[in-house]
Amino acid sequence: MIAQRAGTTALRRLAGHPNAFFTANVAKFGVAKPLSTSQARPGVQTEKISNSEAASLLAAQRLRRPVSPHLAIYDKGQTWFGNSILTRFTGGVLSGSLYAFAAAYLAAPYLGWHLESASLVAAFGALPVAAKVGLKTLAAWPFAFHVVSGTRYLIYDLGIGFARKTVIKTEWYILGTSIVGALGLVLFL
Amino acid sequence: MASIARSSLLRQVAAARPASSPSLIANAARAAAFHTTAKRSLLPPLPQKIEGTVNDAARVPPPSPSHGSYHWTFDRLVAASLVPLTVAPFAAGSLNPTLDALLCATILIHSHTGFQNIIVDYVPQYRTPRARKALIWGLNAATAIVGLALYEFETNDVGVTEAIKRVWKA
Fold first, then answer.
1. pLDDT single digits (tens) B87-139
2. Higher pLDDT, A14 or B170
3. CA angle B133, B134, B136 (to 5 degrees)
4. What is the pLDDT averaged over residues B13-22?
5. Average per-residue pLDDT in chain A?
6. Which of B10, B14, B110, B165 shows a CA-CA span of 20 to 30 A to B139?
7. Interface A-B: count of C-beta contacts within 8 A
8. Which residues 119-148 of A have a C-beta within 8 angstroms of B?
9. What total number of domains does chain A contain?
């Protein structure tokens, strides 16, 4: 740093007192330019353009800008596997199943299907135990998760539990409770 | 390299580059080389379109309590009333027809507003207005069909709670 300043000071002194030997060498080594106060930006040209051209250029730039914030930039633990989206997924699966079954139930007489509770019970009862447990788990976990997590969101709406540590801790409690609850529904009910 | 020779060195590097086209587009293309973020085609955004200029004021939708705080409070009341209605059949073993019908109706409203929220979140009005309209009316139709089906199930069959209980114990 000090050596550089010394060099700069020497050059300034030179600029003040021109000397044939030093001035020639300064030009040769290409260090005279830094003393200049104007900046050169070779390779970058500017153009005078009209207002309408500027507007269309701006529009073209806006079309090319990236979409932000994009889903891919976030931590997957918070977006794809976070409680928030899992609550929406499980709710969508449960309600979607209800809608699909209800529509099929209404269409059943015209299509010759049998979706009355008696035939459903008979069909489900005829399944092997592994299939029963599997299907029950597929229904029970989304239900348990949506109930527990949905209740947590209702508590959020009261303004409770927003501390960062509480949020992280309750996410794990909710996951654990939903798994235990689903197993309880499947195995003991 | 904070030295007095710095700018001269930079000038040499710049001079070594091939001379670029004078047009502005060419300069923009060169600047694009500095964008080093990897391109991911996960959920690619729809093509963007330009409306108006950058100096236009943001459009403010007309305020409507039925789309705002009332809607929010109504959603929460429905969700909260589902808590006792969900716990009751586990505590009592089953539900009487009135409570079962109440549970079905509340679940239907909860599902309807939930699907509405999903459509509003992911199908923006300003970008895909026709898809938005089609989905909202499709949802309305689906909810009406499901409401009719639930009525049929409640009146002609054993009721939703009892049916789930029987299937579960089959």
1. 999 998 888 999 999 999 999 999 999 999 999 998 988 878 999 999 999 99
2. B170
3. 65
4. 46
5. 83
6. B165
7. 122
8. 120-122, 124-125, 132, 136, 147
9. 2
Q: Does A83 lie in the same domain as A31?
A: no
In terms of C-beta distances under 8 Å and separation of at least 24 residues, what long-range contacts does A132-136 make, across chains too?
Answer: A132/B170, A133/A186, A133/A187, A136/A185, A136/A186, A136/B168
The boundaries of the domain holding residue A4 are: 1-35
Check: complex ipTM more than 0.85: no
Does residue A95 sit in the same domain as residue A182?
Answer: yes
Tell me the two tokens of residue A166: 């509480």
Same domain, A89 and A139: yes
User: Are A181 and A94 found together in one domain?
Assistant: yes
CB A57 within 8 A of CB B24: yes
Look at residue B142 in the predicted model and tell me its pLDDT: 97
- Top pLDDT among B73 and A25 is at B73
CA distance A168 to chain B (A): 23
Q: What is the pLDDT of residues A75-122, one digit of tens each?
A: 887 777 889 999 999 999 999 999 999 999 999 999 999 999 999 999
Copy the structure tokens of residue A88.
Answer: 């929406």
Write out the DSSP string of B63-81: P-GGGTHHHHHHHHHHHHH
Give, in order, the Cα–Cα distances in Å from A53 to each of A57, A62, B28, B54: 6, 14, 15, 15
Any B CB within 8 A of A181 CB: no
Q: Which chain B residues touch A76 with a CB distance below 8 Å?
A: none
- Kindly indicate whether the domain formed by B66-169 is annotated with CATH number 1.10.3720.10: no
